Amino acid sequence: MKKEIILKVENISKQYRLGTLGTGTISHDLNRWWAQIRGKEDPYLKVGETNDRSKKGESEYVWALKDINFEVERGEVLGIIGKNGAGKSTLLKILSKVTGPSTGSIKSRGRIASLLEVGTGFHPEMTGRENIFLNGAILGMTKKEINAKIDEIIEFSGCERYIDTPTKRYSSGMTVRLAFAVAAFLEPDILVVDEVLAVGDAEFQKKAIGKMQDISNTDGRTVLFVSHNMSAVKSLCTRGVVLNSGKVVFTGNVGKAIEYYLKNNKVPQFYVAERSSKTNKFNKIYLTDEMSNNIDTPIQRKQKVFLNFEVNANDISGLRFGTTLFSNMNEPIISFPFSEKENFNELILNYHLKIQLPTSILKGGDYFVEAALWKVGQIYDQSDEYISFNVIGDSTQELSGEGIKGVVINNEEWIVKDI
Amino acid sequence: MDKNKEWLFEITPKNNLFDLNIKEVWRYRDLLFLFVKRDVVTLYKQTILGPLWYLIQPLFTSIVFTLVFNKIANISTGGIPPFLFNLAGVTSWNYFRDCLTGTSDTFKQNQSIFGKVYFPRIIMPMSVVVSNLLKFGIQFGIFICFYIYFVISGSIIKPNIYLITYPIVLVCMAMLGLGLGMIISSMVTKYRDLSFLVSFGVQLLMYVSLVSLPYSLFEKNNLTWAVDYNPVAHIIEYSRFVMLGEGTVSQFGIIYTLLFSVFVFLFGILVFNKTEKSFIDTI
């Protein structure tokens, strides 16, 4: 039986103008207006380049999305994946009617509710209960609908005790719980969800993902889910769309989509910063062996490998550094925080930071390094895709095949004795 | 079978000009009242005098106007006590002004909400107009108190039968304020210059809106051109006429003001609708 198409995206494109708006804008506006009067097409829609943030472009106009086409069937959970800047957020904004497309159309057979953020419109001076009503109404529920579900919402949020206290007294975690609880009881035909699940503690994330699965499985609702977290996408979605530089490059089964995405988004093993005027920044990130020679991946398990950062620091007051190793499913594996005695406290400009990777506990697979330089309230330099490397598992792992559970693998040896 | 079934809605780049979807706005009516509630509940949180500020502002303004214009500059207000004359003007003017300034930065102030969720954007400025109506109600109440006080103490004040048209005056002010506010807020998304214009333009507008000066004064000095084409001046003069029985009302003024208000309101909706679709890209 052929399933019903609930959402149809046809040739959606979105153009953005780069740079700042100023006096120059008005001449373009006048040009546009003049073209419109003469019944001609917008002259600036003809120009524009593919959106690749790392390359320098010629035109002031870029296409954040270009000719996007896909269809969604009723009851389907569609995952939209792509690296930063691929156009995921723009697509979500158009789907949720926050902004209009430049060309093309989206046809829908159901009401769309979008969750690009939880807790939109929360007012810190109002109580939890009042905020439930306000936030629910913003998301498109009527007062009657909220009234009918208010007890469930409060219970799901786990904030009964605080429900008549202004939300400014809440911890940030509680605010998120309350906000998600409201969103969880939305009943649209199509739910559009951004990476809102990235917030909150682990227990809550589990609850949130469970709720999303309920929405699609038992209620048969359609969900469009955008995330960086490949394991969440894999567990939730049935089909995947891969975006790259504003174009759909793959549509199909979710497993295949993730595979495609990972294969085509290999990041380099050696990073050299572009010239930039950031106060504090990474100059280089690379891997070395114990003799300080650069090494290539794949690396062997239990090989001695060092992760090196060269940092240029012009303002060290309060400067913090942190790096985390991620799996190819975008799950954090290990963090390497600065301890108390480690600090940027000397008056030198360039630092070299080096740490040994615990390769003996890494399972075979791809890893990448995320790092940031920040101080409280400000991020100087950060990226989620600096360098990556591949670890080849040893015979222990090969013997047991893919079936090893856990994120990391044991390094200690078993003591086997006769008794 | 798919082809035959109608699409519920379609998202396209272009909007129809008068695409104010009344049905949709109606569906979101609860949101309108929740915004009103939010505004009212949170405005004076953590202040000592709280809602008393609603009263202090018009009272003090009227006192100062009375001192400056009537006691020092000796401007005659006919048989009406100058304080009541000013209070009537200030109360009406405040409603118009609050509607205008409150709606003129709709897009800028709510960009964090507008950037995340869709709902008919017009709900936001409409909620401002409604919550200002509550504020107006309180201020009108204090006006009535003084009104009674002056009547008891022997002033000759004759409200006339046209007082029943006062709700129309309110609607006119709301349409003017909302219409202008929507036009300005739409233009501010791209060109910020206008927000500067509003803050001091409103101040200047007050002086040619007959808030503290009677029309007769302009007549005496042959300056009626300065107020004749200002719909707000007509509104305030008219409201004083119906409440206090003193004022110059012309047929031209009434028709002109009505037409002007409706036009500004419709034009405001048109501009607002055109902007709401993609303002988030330019703001």
Question: How many distinct domains of chain A?
Answer: 3
Mean of the pLDDT scores of chain B? 85
How is the CATH topology of the largest domain in chain A named? Answer: Rossmann fold
The number of distinct helices of chain A, counting runs of at least 4 residues, comes to: 9
Using the 3D structure, state the CATH architecture of the largest domain in chain A: 3-Layer(aba) Sandwich
CATH class descriptor name of the largest domain in chain A? Alpha Beta
The most extensive interface, with participating residues per chain, is:
A-B, 45 and 37 residues
Number of strands of chain A: 19
How many distinct domains of chain B? Answer: 1
Please give the alpha-carbon distance between the first and last residues of chain A. Answer: 64 Å
Major sheet summary line of chain A? 6 strands, mixed
Protein name (chain A): Lipopolysaccharide transport system ATP-binding protein
Domain ABC transporter (chain A): 48-270
GO molecular function (chain A): ATP binding
Family (chain A): Belongs to the ABC transporter superfamily.
Task: Give a verbal description of the structure.
The complex is a heterodimer of chains A (419) and B (283). Chain A is globular, with a radius of gyration of 25 Å. Chain A is an alpha/beta fold. Chain A has 3 domains: 9-70, no CATH class; 90-263, 3-Layer(aba) Sandwich (Rossmann fold); 271-401, Coagulation Factor XIII, Chain A, domain 1. In chain A, helix 6 (202-217) links the parallel strand 7 and strand 8. Chain A is built from 9 helices and 19 strands. Chain B is mainly alpha-helical. Chain B has one domain (22-282). Chain B is 68% helix and 1% strand. Chain B has helices spanning 22-27, 29-43, 53-72, 82-103, 106-109, 111-114, 123-152, 166-188, 193-207, 215-220, 225-228, 231-244, 251-276, 279-282, and one strand spanning 9-11. Chain B is globular, with a radius of gyration of 21 Å.
